[in-house]
Amino acid sequence: xxxxxxxxTAIDPVPHAPEQGQDARELFHEIVATQVKAxxxxxxxxxxxxxxxxxxxxxxxxxxxxxxxxxxxTPAAALAFQRSGDDWIVTVKNLYxxxxxFASEFRARGFDIRLSxxxxxxxxxxxxxxxxxxxxxTRIEEESVECESPGGRCAVxxxxxxxFQGSAQIWLARPARPGERYESxxxxxxxxxxxxxxxFRGMTVDEVRGVLAERDGSIEEFRVGKRSERAQxxxxxxxxxxxxxxxxxxxxxxxxxxxxxxxPELTTYVEKKMAGCPKG
Amino acid sequence: MTHPPGARDRFEAIYxxxxxAIHQYAxxxxxxxxxxxxxxxxxxxxxxxxxxxxxxxxxxxxxLYGVARRVLANQxxxxxxxAGLAERLKDESSxxxxxxxxxxxxxxxxxxxxxxxxxDVLALACWEGLTGPxxxxxxxxxxxxxxxxxxxxRKRLAKALGLTEADQAITELRGESL
Lengths: 280, 178
Hints:
The complex is a heterodimer of chains A (280) and B (178). By secondary structure, chain A is of the alpha+beta class. Helix content of chain A is 22%, strand content 24%. A four-stranded antiparallel sheet of chain A has the order 1-2-6-5, covered by helices on one side. In chain A, strands 9-8-11-10 form a four-stranded mixed sheet. In chain A, a hairpin with a 4-residue loop joins strand 8 (218-224) and strand 9. The longest helix of chain A has 11 residues, at 22-32. Chain B starts with 6 loop residues before the first helix and ends with a helix. Chain B has helices spanning 7-28, 33-49, 59-82, 85-97, 105-112, 116-126, 132-139, 143-160, 168-177. The longest helix of chain B has 24 residues, at 59-82. Chain B has 178 residues and is mainly alpha-helical. At the A-B interface, helix 1, helix 2, strand 4 and strand 10 of A face helix 1, helix 2, helix 3, helix 4 and helix 5 of B.
């Protein structure tokens, strides 16, 4: 076993299998009492290889027409497909299109891919925040990695192997609109975020409030204690342990009455975060 | 349609053989006993409905892991719709980070910070004790793809922990003395 494996094994949250008790027996009886219905087989109807679709399209004279080409009849496409070797580079043209719209444009290309785009904090905008490939052996890769613009004007795209025949669900982050809360959040001190270049860990709550105020931000709520309990307010002289963006201009703060202990790991982490920030 | 005779016995054998492992798998990846129970009932209900698809022998366990994994993904999807995802993740990770006097919080922190698919393969390898080909079966990918994913995940975790190949021996010592 490698060293890394040993460390992961050591943090197993449930190292011992449970006893198979009364609950297990009850569940068994509930399950076998369930009426079994005929199985539906609707998930994989017919997947036409993309190459075949293109060949057919060439015959009808519409091959390679960009999906976002001007058209008087159809609304502008939400996705643009561009071929790159064995892959498609798919770029999201309309971050606010509905999931149904994305699904139908993917379906038109023979893909069973669902795309959900939800508001994310600035450093996550344009990034894949989650994904689930339920079938198939190929991977979908994020392309829009350099996407730090807080305005979210970067192109959001990803790479899908043309032979991808599975089904996938992808979550992407888009900029939040006024009043929206983030569904995905980056580090609160990442580029574009409210506490970028602020060594806020170990500051007092009041100090962090001051920094946030300069940046038109505020603390939304606190989390305190070992169980991370919710608190609306804490004394201003408490210390900030961690924070996370929750909505534009808002952060959630972990605070404690004692000074924050800087482990060597935390110190290194903070140093890395502050590298490249103006000194002083 | 109903199951053929003998299906109930076969299901019972599968259920008894794999309940502890699947329960442990679910408990490792959920926050509450209620969520674990939900994953268990949905996973084994799927196995009952699709009893003809459940492979024989040890492969049944991998098949069940695969089902449980999809059930968990659906559960998380539902939860993230209900609560702010960021907050939930943060709460989870800070809860784990604070959880032990074992001196391994930095490992937990680094592990929690990995992309989900890295955590997925590392956990299957180290917690469930699966080999590359077995992980491939759970994830629905080839053994080679699983091995590559595992290799990359190990590298990323080592990097997150600030380890180079040469450092790893030292960490091993530290890890054991902690």
